[in-house]
TrEMBL record:
Belongs to the class-V pyridoxal-phosphate-dependent aminotransferase family. SerC subfamily. Its cofactor is pyridoxal 5'-phosphate. The keyword Transcription does not apply. NCBIfam families: serC_3 (TIGR01366). It is an enzyme of class 2 (transferase). It comes from Bifidobacterium longum subsp. infantis (strain ATCC 15697 / DSM 20088 / JCM 1222 / NCTC 11817 / S12). GO terms for biological process: glycine biosynthetic process, by transamination of glyoxylate; L-serine biosynthetic process; pyridoxine biosynthetic process. Residues 42-344 form the Aminotransferase class V domain. This is phosphoserine transaminase.
Length: 380
């Protein structure tokens, strides 16, 4: 039976988008698209206007993340899932270790397991709703995990595995739903990669990677050895991190990018930096997340999915609902009222809400979201 219910306008958020990716895009970003209609859209990425846009993105990210000397920003097409394959082709020398505690952290590990020229990865699995970091392991040259597991709303710490740097190993972190929303010390990583459709408020299809000097050297060495006679590794140009970096240094991508994505991302980075950068963004996300967690803890029918408070994400908040309250029914009514994309991750299979609280989302709208859910549950 389909139930319809009108939520009073006075309770509704001004903007009803709470997706965990794609996320809310600010009106100012759309205005930037309109402003660039004749100077950027439809222009070759080899020409100065688009190259200036890429240069602004790279410099803006350097400022936003307070990058140390020697770290470089590279970007290319394909999204973060493409970067998993790039890392397998260009970064992992022989064997990697993975913390796997959700769908996305496990997918990168699966890519490494399928690469015919790599040894089987070492897995450190954690239960959904928790995290587990890889441990120092003999023969491992690359340690990988996700800063924020988008599927479960778990945030993991970013610190090098003790002894890994001394052993010459790299630390490669998936920051896709964390970058711009969670605090991070980039110096604790060799590769911090992400896509722009979360905190950076753009469309997908692009990857960005912040690379340490050690990661740059590793990629050059791995790719050089792949060309030696008898080598069993194949690094096609599209998966070559060195090729991507060389193009990025020219403020361009190897292949034609979606210029609209670049425009929206550049506008978002400037907005974040003008408001106070990473410190401002993470404080804003923490405020929104605390509204949801506090509401769920007070609720008679809801509770935070992630039990450990230190593991709870301030980027993607997951809320379990009592079995008497069906998330699918609530979500259907919310969507009818213009409040969208708060569904739990489908493969997790829980009776759950999942709310993206990236910097573009107003904390006041998050508060309104909780009131709307309460209203729906009360009237069902």
């Amino acid at each position: 039976m389909t139930i319809t219910l009108s939520i009073p306008e006075s309770l509704k958020p001004e903007d009803g988008r709470f997706g965990s990716g794609p996320s809310k895009i600010r009106p100012e970003q759309i205005a930037a698209l309109d402003a660039g209609a004749t100077t950027l859209l439809g222009t070759s990425h080899r020409q100065a206007p688009v190259k200036q846009l890429v240069a602004s993105i790279r410099e803006g990210l350097r400022e936003f993340f307070h990058l140390s000397e020697g770290y470089e920003v590279a970007l290319g097409n394909g999204g973060a899932s493409a970067f998993w394959e790039i890392a397998c082709a260009s970064l992992i020398t022989r064997r990697a270790a993975f913390g796997t505690y959700g769908s996305f952290s496990a997918k990168f590990a699966a890519s490494a397991a399928n690469a015919p020229f790599l040894e089987d990865p070492v897995l450190f699995p954690g239960e959904p709703g928790t995290y587990r970091l890889p441990e120092l392991t003999e023969g491992v040259d690359t340690y990988c995990w996700a800063h924020n597991e988008t599927s479960t709303g778990v945030a993991a710490p970013i610190r090098r595995v003790a002894g890994s740097r001394e052993a010459g190993a790299l630390t490669v972190i998936d920051g896709t739903s964390a970058a711009g929303a969670l605090p991070v010390d980039i110096s604790q990583t060799d590769v911090y990669y992400f896509s722009p459709q979360k905190a950076f408020g753009a469309d997908g299809g692009l990857w960005v990677a912040i690379l340490s000097p050690e990661a740059i050297d590793r990629a050059a060495g791995v790719e050089s050895s792949a060309h030696l006679e008898g080598a069993h590794r194949w690094v096609p140009p599209f998966l070559s991190l060195t090729t991507a970096l060389n193009n990025s240094r020219k403020d361009q991508t190897l292949n034609t990018p979606a210029v609209a994505t670049l425009i929206m991302m550049e506008n978002q980075i400037r907005w974040l930096n003008n408001n106070g950068g990473l410190a401002w963004a993470t404080t804003r996300c923490a405020k929104s997340a605390s509204i949801l967690y506090s509401w769920a803890e007070r609720s008679e029918y809801a509770a935070p999915f992630v039990v450990d408070t230190d593991s709870r994400s301030n980027a993607v908040v997951t809320i379990d609902l009592d079995e008497r309250v069906q998330a699918s029914q609530i979500l259907s009514i919310l969507r009818e009222n213009g409040i969208v994309d708060a569904a739990g991750y489908r493969k997790l299979g829980r009776n759950q809400l999942r709310v993206g609280v990236f910097p573009s989302v107003e904390p006041a709208d998050v508060m309104a979201f909780t009131k709307c859910v309460d209203y729906v549950v009360e009237h069902l």
